[in-house]
Specification:
alpha+beta
Amino acid sequence: MGERALAAARAAVGVRFRVHGRDSAGLDCLGLAGLAMRAEGYEGEVPSGYALRGGDAARVRAAIEAAGFVAGDSAGDLLLMRSGPGQLHFAISSGEGIIHADAMLRRVVERPDVPWPVIGRWRLRER
């Protein structure tokens, strides 16, 4: 599990960053997460309309687990990170690093490291 998510995330590298973006015209971090998790078979809704700052990590964790995700430990996992005070950020684990929608670089990128504290790591529960 996770190979399809990782491949989908890598295929999105270079797609432009767009707040609340959900397709190849532009992605934000949750849009990229949704794209990768759909490649693994996730069929649920990907939230939109959220604030860019002030996320409640406990509430986000609970929603992810309620959606059928379990603790992960490999490439292709969905990562939740604390990228700044009051700011949560999603990425896909590439093994050593991450693939994420970078607002500063204005596109989806792959980094060789994990620059922020990881506060959650999941994969889709196998069916």
